[in-house]
Amino acid sequence: MKGTASEQRELLDYLDLPIRSFRRLGRMILLACHDMGHALMMLGSSVLYIRTAWRPRARREISMQLYITGIKSLGVITVVAMFTGMILALQTGLELRRYGQEEFIGSAVAVSMIREMGPFMTGLIIAASVGSAIAAQLGTMKVSEEISALEVMSIDPNRFLVMPRLVALAVMMPILTVYTNLLGILGGGIVGSTQLGVAFQAYIDNATRFAENKDLYVGLFKAVVFGVIIATVACHEGLSTTEGAVGVGRATRSTVIVSFLLVLIIGYMITRLFYI
Amino acid sequence: MIKFEQVEKELGGKTVLNGVSFEVPKGETFVIVGLSGAGKSVTLKHMVQLLIPDRGSVYIGDDRISSASGKELERLRLRFGVLFQSAALLQWLTVFENVALPLREHTAMSEEDIEQTVLEKLSLLKMEDAVDKYPADLSGGMQKRVGLARAIVMDPEIILYDEPTSGLDPVTSRLIDGLIEDLRQELGITSVVVTHDLHSALAIGSRIMMIDNGKIVENAAPEEFIESENETVQRFLESQYITRRGEWEKGMKNHAG
Hints:
Chain A is mainly alpha-helical. Chain A has helices at 5-48, 56-69, 74-98, 105-143, 146-152, 157-195, 200-210, 213-239, 244-275. Chain B contains 10 helices and 10 strands.
């Protein structure tokens, strides 16, 4: 390197910001890879523990998680599903009316709900309500040494805590998605018959004529995948918590953000895989 | 029973343990004292592989726990009972279920036998009336006693106590001290106690080790410990108004009384 010492220092100062940014980016990528690897190992270990799900203690824990995921989320899912169907019916109905095609509202709402909106909306609600609660609970257990206590008692947290939550979310997500689909279609039908002048029976006939079995299967497949994603992200964030109450808050926020992003991205990839 | 060989550990860029070597003989109550952040709890966590040393080894008998994994680690950890600083009870389980948990997970005992064993351990700690309560309904001292009942329910060979008397009233503290002593005398259990409370350490310890800045500055029997010429030990003794052996012995008589 030629030039005076002060010129060299100026050049280094000039390059300092991009170098630091590049270093920070590299560190973030490495950290993300490390977290992803850790989360996948936890998922793999928990999947292997599913063979112990029949044991009385595990059955009780799974039942409790099914109750928390399913029954306790029913209220918010009912409202969101109804309004999703109603908004879909109103928006597409108004557009179709311009062409005198409002009798097709049924198919538009049913196909949108079953293929995309049902699993997507259910995924978002479960990530925000159940996923965040799981992260907060496991995070609190981590910082109050309860996870360490399980480890020294030779009780694997992946079997005792993660597996029941994984099973409950993977089982409950498709059930809740079917419920969301039905209520969404019902909400669309109510809007169609009261606001757009489409008879309810005609709406239902149209909806059932155009919706295919494949739409249902792909939608349910998405729901199971979303359930696994939310459980994995929430448990991983919770079990990785450090730094007390601040860390618990951070884990909860990360769970919601990462789950939302993954539900969107993986949802798109599954749609592309099955429909193109 | 427990052996540390040149253990080094760095956490967050700071050296917490720096070439620590010591042995805990079988059937003794080994007390680790030191200032906050000196490396006491980190030492304790290495004994059950909650932390893995960067360099050096930790042995339990002839088994190297610092490199154990899978079933081997599970087997070694089952030789321990641990009382955590915060008691670490599972909040959604009752007192009974918390204490019964290790038995249900690791033994084929019938529910009747489990109930009998759990009640026996809880009554040792005078907690038999709280079986149906949840941890949130208990005071800090009561939670610690339940934590101790859970630690001893599997009749372990070694019990680790992380600050067993911190935040407790003097009466409960002495109850726990007495129980640690009873377990050693009656069952020959090896105990490792991490504490700030030198009065308690001198009363129950068969050996006292002081750690400062990740290094051992003293490792001696209580009567030698208070006579230590080491400046750090002297300062630590003075900070708790223990300056001369005569005064300590007088204090211990009152303590026992």
